[in-house]
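Box 3.1 A note on notation
Throughout this textbook, protein chains are presented in two layers. The first layer is the amino acid sequence; the second is a token string describing backbone geometry. Keep the layers aligned when reading.
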Amino acid sequence: MRRVRILDSAQGVQVVVDATAYRSFISNDYLGLASHPALKKALGDAAEHYGTGSGASHLLGGHSRAHQQLEEELAAFTGRDRALLFSTGYMANLGVLTALLHKGDCVLQDKLNHASLLDGGLASGADFRRYLHADIGSLQKHLDRCGERKTLVATDGVFSMDGDIAPLPAIAALCHRHDALLLVDDAHGVGVLGKNGAGSCEHFGLTQGDVPVLMGTLGKALGSFGAFVAGPQDMIEMLIQFARPYIYTTALPPAQAAVTSAALRLLQAESWRREQLQHNIAFFRAQAAERGLALMESNTAIQPLLVGASARVLALDARLRESGFLVGAVRPPTVAEGAARLRITLSAAHSEADMLALLDAVAAALQDTP
């Protein structure tokens, strides 16, 4: 059984969970911004002005100047016409897919897409099909079968359990040839990939014309909360009119929007955070190889170690907690049967000493856990 652990501290490298101190490699706070003084100040200042809640949905009086400013900043940051805020990434994917697709349409999704994309595709009523992971040939066959029907292709930018990056240029070219709409969920790419941190599309040099529908979350690398969808003006206007998870929910607190605006400014002013994260990823992988630890292929902050059996990954998790480390023990149904893993996430805030200590603990736990 899964259980909820109680965090008694702020997010960071050092955390207190269930009254016990750990070094954390479990958070998606990739740039170490979740406890940054500038973000805490922005939250307090905005709460003093706007209060603690938005009080209503965006369309019924809950859309503040802070929300509007953030949407404009996100559009400029990602190079899109317009952006629209959602309360969570799950709601954003559900809203986009159910608004843009209907019965008779075709939706094609990578087999390892995030659950929110899969659920949104199923809820849309469209003909739902999954292509083999990152397999352009498989996607081509499914596009051929969709024929002349309205088709949307959806993929993660960075896959949340494997850490690999989707082959977006090839997918975008294929969608262009088949006149299919492309949606990229860049929850784990925004903030960390690309020259300016704008995500996997910037990483590959892809524009709004290549990727018309871009979703990103604000609670990972940006250290805040919420999500957004960015794209052409007409599409965003359509979502305002028809995306039920946008229309029928209370807007996220204006103070939280102000926090994200502050995070965007930090992200662009302090590029050293992304550079440090890239250094940490390379260092961690090199040191893991020296210890004979076969990490899965990933050049992102998500560094999975395939274990196999659920019972073994849980035993490893327990050993690591005894040694003072928190990592993600991921098992079915989140991943396939026989693909349980330690999902290790790195941050710009981790030191080399932190990473070496974890790797030594993992190596010892593997040796002692059959």
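The chain has two domains: 14-28+271-368, 37-269. The mean pLDDT is 97.
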